[in-house]
Amino acid sequence: MQLRWAQRTILSWATALIILSYVQALPVGLLKCLKNIRSRSESSLVTPSSPLYDTNRIGFNSYFDHRPRAIFHPASEEEAASAILCAAANHVAVAPRSGGHSYEGYSSGGRNGSLVIDLSQFQQFSLDRRNNIATIGAGTRLGHAYTRLWENGEYLIPVGTCPSVGVGGHGLGGGIGVVGRKHGLLTHNILSMTMVAANGTIHTVSPASNPDLFWALRGAGGGSFGLVTEFRVQAYEVPSPVTTVILTYKPDKMGAVLSAFAKQGKIATEDLSATLYIDKKKIEIEFTYLGSQAQMQGAIDPFIEHIGEAPFQTEFEEGTWFQAATRWGQRAGSTLEAASIGNMTFYHRGRSLFYRDLLSEDEVGVIEKYLQNLPKEKTWGYILIDLWGGKIDRPSEPSAFDNHKGVLFSIQFDIFWSSPHPPTPGFACEACLKWSADFVKEMQSIYSSGPILEAYQNYIERDMPDAFQAYYGDQLPRLRQIKKSVDPRNVFRFPQSIPLP
């Protein structure tokens, strides 16, 4: 590995010097520079004059209407390096895009005028069954990752349930998933990465090579330090069977369900993962258990006993791991087979908070108030609560996510609204945005989990008070120094990127 890294670094430096001298000699702008570096027919360039521009620039959330200077789809790391140098020479910010699911539209730059480097062609995959290490391209969607791991010997990696999310942003910002309590976050299971830096060099980043950057990328690496094109990830043989269950309660049991979720979550087996879904009409506890239905029943009985009432509906399903992943993927609004779809028309506002203990009665009351008073427009508002803990608190290597050790659960505050006809990028439901902002501000004002707000960086939001503290804690000074060492000209930037010192 060290020899390979040294050879690649020497070659990439030579490539970078040649390209940089060429770029700097050009009396042309960004678009012509990008056109001049296309060396393979598989790469593509989308510009504002292209008929594909208006569909290609929109990611998961059509609420964001950012207009990039261009969208480049490289077919190799060398082409990506050349595009980065073109952007740097023209003083244009670079925005990496893996799946396009940034909650603030940062994968399209977070504002107008960026160069988006889309990684959708980085679909490489291999699995070394001698050491259970999967090599996965950064443009791979989670649904495709599930499928390829299953087809190559029934393996898994700890990732989330939404099939269209990209591996890149998911893993660099944390990556909570259905086996997180058993195996940790995706970021904890990254063993090494390939990254294209702002100066065009291509690096292998691992504990032995670039250890500071390895620490920073895992937890704070979503677009601030460089373009990650490939991950080497610890994979795990899939247990059999796997059981899923959905327990459904009526909204008047919210206080009891929330209490049970937190109290029993502290002592639950790591084979059990849990997500709590609450809207104005129902409460659903979604469990996944790495074992049989009989074993799962014993694991969830304490939850039901604490609530003090049996659910009015119970749906068990015992089967394979792949069947469980497919079930949750379909509930997320897609299928594993359709995971490559990127330009879906959704209008969405999402926010988050982390909690280290039970919610107070006041916080439960605020949740009830807002879920029962949604805007009158065609909307879908809810909260999702994911149980953390277990192996998440015991990573094998330090990372920039370590300030969140000890978190008991996260709350995601979500609202979707209907699109006009035809769908219009940037369409805003003002009542929905106000509902979202007021809901979270009221929760923040009575935050019971410590003197400083704490939130999940993969659900990033511009309105978060003292956002860098909420996402990275006291690690920001170290992150800023690492940023300076790899990107001193701040080529990789967006409204909430790690700032230079």
Automatic annotation (TrEMBL):
One of its GO terms (molecular function) is FAD binding. PROSITE patterns: FAD_PCMH. Its cofactor is FAD. Keywords: FAD, Flavoprotein, Oxidoreductase, Signal. Pfam families: BBE, FAD_binding_4. Residues 64-238 form the FAD-binding PCMH-type domain. Residues 1-25 form the signal peptide. Gene3D superfamilies: 3.30.465.10, 3.40.462.20. PANTHER family: BINDING OXIDOREDUCTASE, PUTATIVE (AFU_ORTHOLOGUE AFUA_1G17690)-RELATED, FAD-BINDING PCMH-TYPE DOMAIN-CONTAINING PROTEIN. Belongs to the oxygen-dependent FAD-linked oxidoreductase family. This is FAD-binding PCMH-type domain-containing protein.
